[in-house]
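Re: beginner question about structure tokens

> Can someone show what the tokenized structure looks like for a real chain? I only ever see the sequence side.

Sure, here's an example I had lying around. Input first:
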Amino acid sequence: MGGVAARRPVAWLTAVVLVLEACGILFLNWVLSIVVDKQQMSMAGVDPAAMSTGAWVLGAAFALYLVCCAALLARTGVRDRPPGTFGRIALVCCAVVHAVLGAFAVGLVGWAAFAVMMAVLALLVLTLTAYGASYGGDTGRTAPATAPARPTP
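And the corresponding structure tokens:
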């Protein structure tokens, strides 16, 4: 029964980590947009102002996605019930994104960034498996009190 008691704190911890990561993504993209704007950087003739705005908007969209996943995890932790189908799909996509970012991070940034991405991935997978349908069979739904009557021939 220790696993049942431990799944709520893991969901909360994962939610907090995703919010902190969203803040870091926002900060990083803000700095990148300033650097692109000040240096007048351009790729393939794209306007530097468009690249600066694009970096900011894309960072904000990704941060919003992470905050939405954190809200799903917080709701899961509060209710102590697994997320629905949409929530599961969003969290699995978030886990896949962290796996891919971890693979890129090891080559671009280093092993410390890889370790951070894998730690977040582990928290996401642990939360998903702790609230899985096979875990005790509890999906948050209750069975009907009586069986339906058989039709008469």
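Each token stands for a local structural state, so reading them left to right follows the chain. Residues 134-139 have pLDDT under 50 and may be disordered.
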